[in-house]
């Protein structure tokens, strides 16, 4: 009889963070909880856009993120790291972009793939791999967002940005989530109860 433990191969999810500060602390908190609760089944690997790297620094979340997640990589250009290829070869079950900035949302909605995350989204969809997105600008309204210094700033979510979200909702294999808390439901659907 062997004493060796049988290593169960974990399934992988690619989590893309684009450059949006709105609710960014909540996103990191939600993903930390999910990574712990699903740790025996799933490994979450983190892909940070160039803009998100700066946003994370502003909100002092960079070190925290690296402490929680075993793999955190930052975009160099649209094909480096080559997340698009990893998505197409089904290394990951799905791509989660959370938060999706208005920039990333608009690009994916229009089929533009000129950044690591938008390229990965386009290529995933071509290869029948689902993409989940949590856009910061979900519907037209006035919102108050927390600045890195803790103050609130009044912003308007423009109808043009909300229209891009509606476009995403009509795209095959794109799943739009209205808020960070909804991400847990996706993990439950894919990987079962914890
Ligand atoms: C501190 C900070 C906070 C930002 N917050 C937001 C935001 O909440 N929503 C948004 O759409 N863009 C926000 N931006 C602007 C984006 O980072 C910018 O549009 C960038 O080009 C997005 O690139 P990406 O979509 O490739 O990550 C923020 C920028 C900074 C520096």
Q: Quick gist of this model?
A:
This protein has 8 helices and 8 strands. It is of the alpha/beta class. The strands form 2 sheets. It has a 6-stranded parallel β-sheet with strand order 3-2-1-4-5-8, with helices on both faces. It has a two-stranded antiparallel sheet with strand order 6-7.
Describe it.
With 194 residues, the protein is an alpha/beta fold. The protein has a single domain, classed as Rossmann fold (3-Layer(aba) Sandwich), CATH 3.40.50.1950. It is 39% helix and 22% strand. The protein has helices at residues 24-37, 50-58, 62-68, 83-88, 102-110, 116-126, 159-169, 183-191, and strands at 11-17, 42-48, 72-74, 95-100, 131-135, 141-146, 152-157, 174-176. The strands form 2 sheets. A 6-stranded parallel sheet has the order 3-2-1-4-5-8, sandwiched between helices. Strands 6-7 form a two-stranded antiparallel sheet. β6 (141-146) and β7 (152-157) form a beta hairpin. α5 (102-110) runs parallel beside α6. The longest helix has 14 residues, at 24-37. The radius of gyration is 17 Å and the shape is globular. The two termini are 31 Å apart. Bound molecules: flavin mononucleotide. Flavin mononucleotide is lined by residues 18-22, 49, 51-52, 54-55, 58, 101-104, 115, 136.
List the helices and strands and how they pair.
Blueprint: E1 11-17, H1 24-37, E2 42-48, H2 50-58, H3 62-68, E3 72-74, H4 83-88, E4 95-100, H5 102-110, H6 116-126, E5 131-135, E6 141-146, E7 152-157, H7 159-169, E8 174-176, H8 183-191
Parallel strand pairs: 1-2, 1-4, 2-3, 4-5, 5-8
Antiparallel strand pairs: 6-7
The structure holds flavin mononucleotide (FMN).
């Amino acid at each position: 009889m062997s004493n060796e433990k049988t290593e169960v191969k974990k399934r992988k999810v690619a989590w893309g963070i684009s450059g949006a500060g709105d609710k960014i602390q909540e996103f990191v908190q939600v993903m930390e909880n999910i990574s712990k609760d699903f740790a025996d089944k799933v490994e979450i690997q983190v892909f940070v856009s160039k803009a998100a790297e700066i946003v994370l620094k502003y909100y002092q979340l960079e070190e925290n993120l690296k402490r929680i997640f075993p793999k955190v990589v930052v975009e160099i250009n649209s094909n480096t790291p080559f997340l698009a290829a990893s998505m197409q070869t089904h290394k990951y079950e799905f791509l989660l972009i959370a938060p999706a900035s208005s920039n990333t949302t608009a690009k994916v909605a229009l089929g533009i793939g000129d950044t690591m995350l938008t390229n990965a989204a386009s290529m995933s969809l071509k290869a029948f791999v689902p993409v989940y997105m949590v856009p910061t600008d979900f519907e037209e309204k006035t919102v108050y967002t927390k600045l890195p210094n803790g103050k609130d700033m009044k912003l308007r979510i423009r109808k043009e940005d909300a229209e891009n979200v509606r476009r995403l909702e009509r795209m095959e294999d794109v799943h739009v989530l209205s808020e960070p808390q909804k991400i847990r439901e996706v993990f439950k659907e894919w990987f079962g109860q914890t």
